[in-house]
Design brief:
This protein is α+β, with helices and mostly antiparallel strands. It folds into 2 domains: about 1-65, no CATH class; about 70-120. The protein has helices at about 1-20, 40-65, 65-105, and strands at about 25-30, 35-40, 115, 120. Helix 1 (about 1-20) packs antiparallel against helix 2 (about 40-65). The relative contact order is 0.05.
Length: about 130
Amino acid sequence: MKHFSWIFTVPVTAIVVLFAITNRSLATLSFWPLPWEMNLPIYLIILSALFVGFMLGAVVAWLSGGRRRRQTRQLAEQVRAQSRQIAELQRRQAEASAAATFAASPAANTPANTLGGRQVLRVAAR
C-alpha cells in the first residue's frame, strides 16, 4: 500500500508542478459584491479552488460519518462490558468447579472434616 501511494503521488505532483509552471500569467480575481480585487497567477487561483473544494468535501464526509463513528464507539463499549462479564463468569465457574472437586474428594468426607454429622467445607484463602 505504501508503494501504491508513491505511484499515485509522484505523477500527480509532477502534473501540478508542470501546470503551475505553464500557467504563470496573472488573472484578476474579484469578489463581486465586495470591492476587493486581486491579481494572482492562474495556477494559484485554480489550485486554491481545488484545495478549498477538497477540504469542503472532507468536512462533509467527516460529518456524514458521525453516526457510524458513534455506533462503533457504543459497540466497542458493549464488547468491553461483555468481555468483563465473561471473565467474571469464567472465574465464578472455575471457583465452583474447584469447590465441587474438593467436596467430591474422599478426604473431604473424613471425620476430621465433619462437625456433628454435618460436612464442613473448607475453602482455601487466596
